[in-house]
Design brief:
Chain A is an all-alpha fold. Helices cover 75% and strands 2% of the residues of chain A. The chains are: A mainly alpha, B mainly alpha. Chain A: Part of the energy-coupling factor (ECF) transporter complex CbiMNOQ involved in cobalt import.
Chain lengths: 230, 100
């Protein structure tokens, strides 16, 4: 039943997207593309969470050293998924975040550290994202997305949804939230003449459609991943 | 039970592959380019006078080097994931052996 539901919703999504071609877009805010004040603000918001994340990882792994392997697995999973630049129906490529698994297993603050590692790798070696925008990108991919994933997973679990459905929804919606937050970051920094909200909606419109099939892929791959190991 | 799990995983992976192939079939003439360029375009469209105040300290010299590094990123991740799977299976078998 669940398989069918996922399959059907993917098919429906594909057809919805067929009717709505849009622009090309990437997920991370590019180097230098946030004015210094905005870049600083997102650093200021991200750094406390990263510090808390370090403490959270230390606490969890001291309590149970076996968790180190599982944490590394979550990091490795994010590494693989964020290296897969997938074609989207809009005629452009983007990539999944891969941080949903970490958020579900270790909580959002610990996941911010995993996202930081991935983002640093991509900023330093691939000129993808950037150092000046690292704070903003950690906030969207390492904090906002994982918090959404974590809450959705807990909520659905409590509501009695099956594990697969909870994991799929958490990872897929978390991925979308990451892109929506990126849109908000860009919209705040670059308001159109019609205002901040109009700019955000413009960015959201582009992001949401481009990312939808990728978010579904991300959700599905996150379901495959943990089941294979248990 | 076990067989069903494998079947389910194969089906799920097939859906992901389909989601990647369908855009290419539907939209064969699209550029599928690096998306960052278009993001920059939209920013300059909204604020034509904006100049990026910071540029990447190092950029891959070519598309080949970039794909090398992306492949490296995927390989590091996959390497650990497969190690973890093997480790988990071995651990389980080992503890089962001890139980006997």
């Amino acid at each position: 039943m669940k398989k069918k539901r996922i399959l059907y919703s993917s098919i429906i999504t594909v057809f919805v997207l067929l009717l709505s071609p849009t622009y090309v877009f990437a997920m991370h805010v590019m180097e230098g593309f946030l004015p210094p004040a905005w870049a600083a603000l997102w650093f200021a918001l991200s750094i406390p969470v990263l510090i808390y994340g370090m403490k959270s990882i230390k606490k969890q792994t001291t309590n149970n050293p076996n968790l180190k392997m599982l944490l590394a697995l979550c990091g490795a999973f994010a590494f693989v998924l964020s290296s897969l630049k997938l074609p989207s129906i809009t005629g452009s490529c983007s990539h999944p975040t891969g941080v949903g698994l970490g958020a579900i297993l270790f909580g959002p603050t610990a996941t911010s550290i995993l996202a930081l590692i991935v983002l640093l790798f991509q900023a330093l070696l691939l000129a993808h994202g950037g150092l000046s925008t690292l704070g903003a990108n950690v906030f969207s991919m390492g904090i906002a997305g994982p918090i959404a994933s974590f809450l959705i997973y807990k909520g659905l679990n409590k509501a009695g949804a099956s594990k697969s459905v909870s994991i799929f929804s958490a990872a897929a919606l978390g991925s979308l939230v990451t892109y929506i937050v990126t849109s908000i970051q860009l919209g705040l920094a670059f308001p159109t003449e019609a205002g901040v909200l109009a700019a955000i909606m413009k960015f959201v419109g582009i992001f949401a459609f481009t990312q939808l099939p990728l978010a579904i892929s991300e959700g599905i791959l996150t379901v495959v991943q943990p089941i294979g190991n248990i | 039970m076990k067989f069903k799990l494998v079947q389910k995983n194969i089906l799920l992976v097939l859906v992901v592959i389909l989601l990647a192939i369908v855009p290419l079939l539907i939209n064969p003439n699209a550029e599928y380019g690096g998306a960052d360029g278009a993001a920059e375009e939209l920013v300059t469209e909204i604020q034509p006078e904006y100049e990026p105040w910071f540029s990447p300290i190092w950029e891959p010299p070519s598309g080949e080097i970039e794909s090398l590094l992306f492949a490296l990123q995927a390989a590091i991740g996959t390497g650990f994931i497969t190690y973890f799977i093997g480790y988990s299976i071995g651990k389980k078998k080992g503890s089962e052996g001890l139980a006997k």
